[in-house]
Amino acid sequence: MLKDKNILLCVTGGIAAYKAVQLVSLLKKASANVKVIMTEHACKFVTPLTFQTMSENPVYVDMFHPLSNMDVEHISLAKWADLIVVAPATANTIAKINLGIGDNMLTTVLLAKRSPVLIAPAMNTKMMDNPVNKKHLKELEDKDFIILPCGDGRLACGDIGTGKMLDPEQILEYIEIGVSSPDFKDKNIIITAGGTREALDPVRYLGNRSTGKMGYAIAREARNRGANVILITAPTSLTPPEGVKVVPVESTKDMYQAVEDHFEKSDIFICPAAPADYKAKHYSDHKIKKTQGDDTLVVEFDRNPDILQTFGNKKGNRIVVGFAAESQKVTDYASKKLNKKNLDFIVANNITKKGAGFSSDTNIVTIIDKEGPHELEMMGKDELAKVIMDKIKGILEQKS
Ligand code: CTP
């Protein structure tokens, strides 16, 4: 997504400047072109040479250094950038940008900006909460600057609170959103993810091997493409993508309820989750104890609702996409689910194949729609997420 994109990183004088070095590294790994502007104060924290080495480009600090070519540098930099990110952004620079002050290279380039600008504030909690700073941030937001949230935790001054710059990995996610083409803008998409858990007692549950990776990859891709994403997720070890609404759930019943809560306003429903098909008939309020002589434990289960089938059958004009995890007769079984659950298409995978299934980063799938099956090569789950969203885009275009 970031390949060959021109990212202009503006670094101001805060301790989080050191984290901006990591951001450059992540951007380079993603094959972006990176140029860096630093304020003089930023140079007190990290040297320009560090950024020059990491970005493989000269670093801009001084407005008045002799011209290396005949370009007017602040204008040519603004023209060059596909996206500008100010990270860390101090209260001082935030105020200057808002007031249109151009007293250094960074603020002057921002006056000439023509691409989206992300601002990643980093400061002490009290400074962050200062009404003047808040006013500047609000006014910048009204002028279409994208203000990133701050993290919570222990700040450099020892205070605990809000004001930490987001981690470079999180800022990278916002950069991905900023450079993407918003072809799902204003679409509300519900995505389920992970394996639900059915409690047996306060300690044990019935679960499955789903990791949530596929659902999270689709959520990230949909978000990158401008959708409003609601990610209804069973417990996983994954960090949810930035900028999506996360609804944590535990059981299939909870997941069902969360889908119901959001279904009315949705345009698209994608269901890669592995909701448990059964729940314990009798939940034990206390830990189930072993009893002498009992070598066998019998637990009775009741059927859970089928979330996809229920909502597929009341989909109206929505696009509904399902998944099928099969260990045999993949196309046959998945085609039956396509019809029974009233889906636009189903993504079927043979979980017994190497490189497919639950904990893998890759998948080997067959996409089945009304026209029949279409087998795909093994690919990363991120790549598959793109294929799925492209297919949904095609259906949306046909509908309109
Ligand atoms: N699904 C669902 N609710 C359930 C079970 C499954 O919404 N209670 C959804 C899954 O998220 C997936 C699709 O239905 O998109 C197919 O799930 P899968 O586990 O492959 O099949 P099942 O329909 O449960 O049928 P079976 O277990 O008999 O294969």
Structural class of the helices, strands and pairings?
Answer: alpha/beta
What coarse outline follows from CA principal-axis ratios?
Answer: elongated
**For the CA atoms, what is the radius of gyration?**
25 Å
| Largest sheet strand order | 13-12-9-14-17-18-20-21
Helix content: 25-40%
Mean pLDDT: 94
Distance between the termini: 27 Å
Weakly predicted, low-confidence segments: none
Largest sheet, if any?
8 strands, mixed
> How many DSSP E strands?
22
Q: Tell me the quaternary state.
A: single chain
The molecules bound to the chains, other than polymers, are: cytidine-5'-triphosphate
Output the number of helix runs.
14
Question: Could you tell me the strand content as a percent range?
Answer: 15-25%
Describe the structure.
The mean pLDDT is 94. The chain has helices spanning 17-29, 42-45, 48-55, 73-80, 91-99, 105-111, 125-129, 131-142, 168-179, 213-224, 252-263, 307-312, 330-340, 381-399, and strands at residues 6-11, 33-38, 59-60, 83-89, 117-121, 146-147, 151-154, 160-164, 188-193, 198-199, 205-206, 228-233, 245-248, 268-271, 278-280, 301-303, 319-326, 345-350, 362-363, 365-369, 372-375, 379-380. The strands form 6 sheets. Strands 13-12-9-14-17-18-20-21 form an 8-stranded mixed β-sheet, with helices on both faces. It has a 6-stranded parallel β-sheet with strand order 3-2-1-4-5-6, with helices on both faces. Strands 7-8 form a two-stranded antiparallel ribbon. It has 14 helices and 22 strands. It has 400 residues and is of the alpha/beta class. Helix 1 packs parallel to helix 3. 34% of the residues lie in helices and 24% in strands. Strand 20 and strand 21 form a beta hairpin. Cytidine-5'-triphosphate (CTP) binds at residues 252, 271, 273-275, 277, 304, 306-308, 322-325, 337.
